[in-house]
Specification:
The chain has helices spanning 3-13, 25-51, 53-74, 104-110, 128-136, 147-164, 188-196, 208-211, 242-254; strands at residues 77-82, 93-97, 116-121, 140-142, 167-170, 200-206, 222-228. With 263 residues, it is of the alpha/beta class. It has a 7-stranded mixed sheet with strand order 1-7-6-2-5-3-4. The longest helix has 27 residues, at 25-51.
């Protein structure tokens, strides 16, 4: 797809969105049940990975979705997904998502599709159950403190996408925004797309920054909207032109999200 045409289309069609935030009472009451569900269900999947690994691999999409949807439902957060079909193709894709806060994980899980994987920070291995499950599901850790290892992880992700028709999810921002504003995009995910020879797919989440506004306050009830846009071809991308493509793809995100770098 031509990026100029894509920009014009998104400018005209990016819909307004109201997350319909409620109060903090349900979040305060249901935070412990939500955490209990999250860790109990992960423990159940961990048990299955040991005693019935083939069964878990067959059912992993359903179970990952159930884990994410369970957290959101307990907290009274509804999710609207537009463009789910872009994750349901048997083809390699690099799915770029804006990184807002910890509930990103639940949203990504809730829309999980067959053939998906995700690049995640190695620090998740400090959570024993989660780290082991992510490894079991073939997700890709990245050590942000070691550039050589990070590059190696990206190369492994590119090979996985290219050879196994995987849809690899990665945040081009690299870290959480917390306020929902879009940070600077890093080049790594775009190098990944070029190496994999795969289109990039913008995966845009709105509403999380309103419903989860800090570490201390419990989450509000409300709606999260996910827009999964048309794939953008990387066929003609080169290392020399990469910076311009990074800016153009970020501009697409900015049709939906405020700019966190604006003065």
């Amino acid at each position: 797809m031509d990026l100029r045409a894509e920009l014009n289309a998104v400018t005209m069609t990016a819909p307004p969105f109201d997350p319909q935030p409620g109060g903090h009472l349900r979040g305060a009451l249901m935070m412990i049940p939500a955490l209990t569900w999250a860790f109990a269900y992960m423990f159940w999947m961990l048990v299955l990975s040991i005693v019935a690994p083939r069964y878990l691999r067959r059912k992993k999409v359903r179970m990952i979705r159930r884990w994410g949807m369970g957290i959101l439902k307990i907290l009274g957060i509804r999710i609207e997904v537009h463009g789910q079909e872009h994750l349901q193709v048997n083809a390699s894709r690099i799915v770029l998502f804006n990184h807002v806060n910890v509930l990103d994980l639940a949203v990504l899980a809730a829309v999980w599709s067959e053939g998906c994987s995700v690049i995640y920070k190695k620090e998740f291995h400090k959570i024993p159950i989660m780290g082991r499950l992510m490894a079991f599901f073939g997700m890709i850790p990245i050590d942000r403190s070691n550039r050589e290892r990070a590059v190696k992880s990206m190369s492994e992700a590119a090979k996985m996408a290219r050879e196994q028709n995987k849809k690899v999810m990665v945040s081009p921002e690299g870290t959480r925004s917390r306020d929902g504003k879009l940070d600077i995009f890093k080049r790594g995910p775009f190098h990944l797309a070029m190496e994999a020879g795969a289109p990039v797919v913008p995966f845009i989440m709105r509403g999380l920054e309103t419903l989860v506004s800090g570490h201390i306050k419990p989450p509000r009830t409300g709606v999260v909207r996910v827009d999964i846009l048309d794939p953008i071809s990387t066929e003609n991308w080169t290392r020399k032109s990469l910076d311009s493509h990074v800016k153009e793809v970020r501009q697409i995100f900015l049709q939906y999200l405020p700019d966190g770098t604006a003065n």
